[in-house]
Amino acid sequence: MDEERPSTNNSGTSGIPADRWLQAYHDRFAGFNTITPNICLADLFADGDTKLLIADMGAQWGKQMQLRVYKGTALLSEHTLVDLPLAIAPFYMNLPGPKTPAIAVASGSSIYVYRNMRPFYKYSLPALKVADAEIEAWSTVLQDGADLNVFRDLLVNVLASGESLSAKSEHFLTTSTIQDAETFVRQHAESPLRRQTVLTTLSTMKKSMHEEDALTCIVLGTENRDVYILEPDAFTVLTSMTVPAVPVMMDITGLFDVDYRILVACRDGCIYSLKRGQKSAKLCLELHSQAVGLCVRPSLGCVYVGCMDHSLRCYSTQGKGPNKYAQLWIVQLNHAIVAMQSITIKSLGLELVAVCCQDANIYMYKEKEVVDVIDTGDPVTAIRYGRLGREDNALVYVTRSGALTVKILRRNQTFESLGKAVNNSSTNLTAGNKFVIPKKTKLFVDQTMRERENAATMHRVFQQDFQRMKLIAARQYAETIQKAGAIQTITTGPNGKEHSIAEVKLTARVQGLGPEFALIITLSCAKDAFPPPCDLLIVYSYDSSIYRLDRPYCFLPYLAPGIATSVSVRVTCISELPVSDSIKVIVVPYDSTAPSVTALISMPVAQNV
């Protein structure tokens, strides 16, 4: 492994302290392909030395999948996984001997349990009920002379009714020819019908005590929109609950035997709440986009949610009734959020939230203020914080390139708001903050009473004034347009020929504050103009005592149809008085005295620079 020496240069942002985190280990050739749920920290042998466990999904997604165990910075062991890992979590069982945690690895429809890093038990999700109509359809196909097209229609009707099909029926519907369908039925008609769901998320919850080595329950979320809580010894379902959509992440507080609350983020962009004694979920938050991170902070009475619309949202958990989860604030970030992690520094009594963004930075938030930034050099795909080895405050993350980095918090560090040193948020929206409202005075009460008594009259007067203001604004706008580019088109074209009025169009704009201006003239004609205008002369008429032009006229040999041609002239105000005048622009054919287009340009008053 490529192990680098500790470094203190962990931030490349100006104005941010660079010595809070000590880089203890970095392996750029680790080659990990993993996500945040596939990283955990556990004291595997109850010796006080916490190990790092990472479930690698393989370089090619489904190949060379391994569970790697690190002791400090050394690779302790590797274990081959039989299926793509979804999440791993340590939990404690009620077994004789020293209290060492077991490791649950969620893959597909099963949980593989490792104890002392050896395979211990495999738990499979309970099979789902097969629809009666599907069973009847398969019973008809076993009869002699059964029509496979009719059988296919029966399965399609079952699917259209809202029922889910078994894997065998789904495979039959994928057959494209009648020969393939007959072969499939002949081979699999006698096999039993089974409908199996898969896991989508995994977490843990203490059963009766908050101690680190107390008995732990396993909480599962499935593709069938079910949430199961498993007993850790017999692996039986203690309780099952349902949510309206497929769960993707969970955060749990409380004890199973006392009271608990499970916040579940689902694929429908909503967050639901599950409590002890409930069989169905209750809607808590309806987000504007999908959630990518969920962190509950019970001591702060809030929950942080990172969304795919680059926003970090905070909601209160201390409200009552409909405002139970009231929005506290929103921080709109400049980059997409890819991962989030809760950080608790017990020695400082501090609770932070680490937000990993697409710009290869980890932002530490204390409430809505950024208190630290770590430059990772590459976007982070997985992050975990906790005790590692004998260090209480260790930060482990894996980047998109597969590199593994371990950072340790230095002693006696403080986290203060960085203020304007960090420019990660484009908008900071705060909701729910109390405004300082002055006390009601006698004048305020009298004014309120007058508005109540004369509401209709005041509204009518307001509407009259509003319409009058709109009329004045429209008049001023029309007058400004007329002064800025009033165009007069003459029907006589080049060489004395008659042209349409809209053949040549002229627009003008003035740039600069003065005393020097840039007058830009743009000429264009219609795409179907034939013949196109040619041999045009642009002449400027102005007061020579006020302005001086570097070119009083300009020659245009050809004006291409449908293509705008711009001509720029520098105008200098030579008057010492704060006056302004108009400049007349005349476009005339070279061999004619009748202008094709004229425009009167109102020049602004020159500013003394």
UniProtKB/TrEMBL annotation:
Transmembrane feature ranges: none
Ranges where the Bardet-Biedl syndrome 1 protein GAE domain occurs: 504-607
Any one Gene Ontology cellular component term annotated for this protein: BBSome
Protein name: Bardet-Biedl syndrome 1 N-terminal domain-containing protein
Origin superkingdom: Eukaryota
PANTHER family reported for this sequence: BARDET-BIEDL SYNDROME 1 PROTEIN
Chain segments annotated as coiled-coil in the UniProt record: none
Gene Ontology molecular-function annotations: patched binding; smoothened binding
Biological processes, Gene Ontology terms: non-motile cilium assembly; protein localization to cilium
A UniProt-annotated Pfam family: GAE_BBS1
Location of the Bardet-Biedl syndrome 1 N-terminal domain: 21-275
InterPro entries referenced in this protein's UniProt entry, alphabetically: BBS1 (IPR028784), BBS1_N (IPR032728), GAE_BBS1 (IPR056419), WD40_repeat_dom_sf (IPR036322)
